[in-house]
Specification:
Layout lengths: L2 H23 L3 H29 L10 H37 L3 E5 L5 E4 L1 H7 L11 H4 L3 H9 L6 E4 L7 E9 L3 E8 L1 H37 L6 H32 L6 E4 H16 L4 E6 L3 E4 L1 H17 L6 E9 L2 E8 L21 H7 L5 H11 L3 E7 L3 E8 L6
Helix pairs in contact: 1-2, 7-8, 8-12, 9-10, 10-12
The chain binds adenosine-5'-diphosphate (ADP).
Adenosine-5'-diphosphate binds next to α10, α11 and α12.
Length: 426
């Protein structure tokens, strides 16, 4: 029991005692007690009324005057109100700050509720996606951004990788859309203008393609002359002959490098992807023949292929499988085994190239398909590789809706498996 409560009880008891004694003097105890009780009741109703009137008129005006338990109650409510007002003010300031900072963001930010309706967006999102103030609030986002790709991406709810989208207001603007789920299936959408980045990327690709193309002609001339000189090498001193052979070898390496670079930029740039029915058995048999002549009898090469044909681009597929099979020969010492398999199951079509050669340390495996990445740079001086082979394989597989799986252990050998979807089977 707190102090106010105790003194209120004490005052009430004393009041009734005096009323009783007063009643005794006039022999009217019952009347005196009843009138005192009524007086108390009326007083409490008046206080209650004051409290109700005060709470309903204002939230922070001074409380009405009272004393005792009611006075303490008014003070407590007043203190609570002030505390609440302060935290409300603080909260409002934080919300305003967050809104100001998101408004100032150059990236577009949108909030969409669990029913896919647009709740809030910043100025940048309005400009990038062409949203109109007030009018668009509460409308389904897929009705406002009508691109079918966006609709499929939004409804699919798999937001691990972002979506690239052409801006609905400007055909030349490319947007990158990230969606994050939060709360009860609410979504935060962040969109960024990546047109500039795309332009730089296109410039980089064009530069590589043009430089490779321009280098090709002079290099063909140099290589041609070197070949002619080598034909007459018996007329030259042995010192010149060795130099000529080295120059010829290096010019051939440069030609392979340029061919690989051109192939990569073709794979990256061209949408022209002619698909025809490709019988995998005959394609792999031809590559195996080339592999046998490259190996010059130093490896045992086997091919087991189910009778499968798939839709694809012959030269691209041939280039991808050749890269894997020739790599197996390059990185497998003499008398090693190279097994090529091609089969299908309910997961798709698979082409496997396995060897029992040098193998690759597991730390290199995730980066092998990067351009010019080599597991062991000391190896490539012997093999004469360009470091672009697996990057080409990756791009070819991407263009065939496939992917590459790599298993390898240092000293034990490697397995490269190309997976294609069953929808490609013919
Ligand atoms: P490269 O022209 O150097 O062979 P690739 O892109 O074809 O370039 O291969 C990248 C690297 O992966 C190679 O440098 C090599 O270290 C490693 N590698 C590829 N295939 C094999 C394999 N069958 N066995 C061992 N290492 C391999």
């Amino acid at each position: 029991m707190n102090h106010n409560w105790r003194s209120a009880v004490r005052r009430t008891v004393l009041g009734f005692v005096f009323a009783g004694l007063f009643g005794l003097m006039f022999d009217l105890v019952a009347w005196s007690l009843a009138i005192t009780g009524m007086g108390y009741l009326v007083w409490h109703y008046i206080q209650l009324n004051k409290l109700q009137a005060w709470l309903s008129t204002s939230d922070t005006s001074e409380p009405p005057y009272s004393y005792g338990l009611w006075g303490a109650l008014f003070d407590d409510v007043y203190r609570l109100q002030r505390r609440q007002k302060k935290s409300k003010k603080r909260l409002k300031a934080v919300i305003r700050k967050v809104q100001d900072s998101t408004t100032a963001l150059r990236d577009g930010v949108l909030m969409v509720n669990s029913a896919a309706e647009l709740e809030w967006w910043n100025d940048a999102a309005g400009q990038l996606l062409g949203l109109k103030e007030q009018h668009d609030i509460g409308h389904p986002i897929t009705n406002l951004v009508r691109d079918p790709e966006f609709k499929a991406y939004f409804n699919n709810a798999q937001y691990d990788t972002p979506l690239e989208l052409i801006s609905p207001v400007n055909n030349e603007q490319i947007l990158l859309i990230h969606i994050t789920l939060f709360g009860k299936k609410d979504r935060l959408i962040v969109c960024r203008d990546i047109s500039h980045m795309k332009q730089l990327e296109a410039m980089r690709q064009d530069f590589i393609a043009n430089a490779s193309h321009e280098l090709r002609t002079p290099l063909t001339v140099i290589a041609g002359y070197l070949e002619t000189f080598i034909e007459y090498e018996d007329t030259l001193s042995p010192k010149w002959s060795r130099a000529l052979h080295q120059m010829h070898q290096q010019s051939q390496r440069m030609q392979t490098l340029i061919d690989d670079l051109l192939m990569l930029s073709r794979l990256e740039n061209s949408d022209d992807h002619q698909s025809v029915k490709v019988p995998l058995t005959s394609l792999l048999t031809n590559i195996k023949e080339d592999a046998i002549s490259l190996s010059a009898g130093q490896h045992s090469i086997t091919l087991k292929c189910e009778d499968i044909s798939m839709m694809g681009n012959v030269s691209e597929l041939s280039s991808a499988f050749s890269n894997l099979i020739f790599n197996a020969i390059k990185y497998t010492p003499e008398h090693g085994e190279i097994n090529i398999k091609c089969f299908k199951d309910k997961k798709g079509i698979h082409v496997l190239v396995a060897d029992n050669g040098l193998g690759i340390d597991s730390k290199h495996i995730p980066r092998l398909t990067e351009r010019f990445y080599r597991a062991d740079p000391s190896r490539h001086s012997e093999t004469g590789g360009t470091g672009l082979g697996l990057a080409i394989v990756k791009h070819v597989l991407l263009r065939h809706e496939g992917h590459l799986e790599i298993h390898s252990e240092l000293g034990e050998g490697s397995q490269f498996i190309c997976h294609f979807p069953l929808s490609r089977k013919t």
